[in-house]
TrEMBL record:
Lineage, top ranks: Bacteria, Bacillati, Actinomycetota, Actinomycetes, Pseudonocardiales
Pfam families named among the record's database cross-references: CM_2
Native species: Saccharothrix espanaensis (strain ATCC 51144 / DSM 44229 / JCM 9112 / NBRC 15066 / NRRL 15764)
Start and end residues of each Chorismate mutase domain: 7-89
Protein name as catalogued: Chorismate mutase domain-containing protein
A GO molecular-function annotation: chorismate mutase activity
Matches recorded under NCBIfam families: CM_M_hiGC-arch, PRK07857.1
GO biological process: chorismate metabolic process
Amino acid sequence: MNSTDTAPANEDIDALRQEIDFLDAEILRLVKRRVEISRTIGAARMAAGGTKIVHNREIDVLNRYKELGPEGRDLAMILLKLGRGPLGR
């Protein structure tokens, strides 16, 4: 068995790249929706006299992304920051 037996053909690579492009677009759409929902929740909580951030909820999100390893935690932190919007308002 040589390396060409296991390596994907150029057509396969192109198809896989197209799938990645599709997935990236879908991820962006979902992140934007997540941010929108998170900011709506934060605004509603503040309007009701609560805090913008619920630490227990954020810990739950961080724990969920641990499945991806250390970078998963970083990704969760970025998503949480995007959803918070500017703090102090």
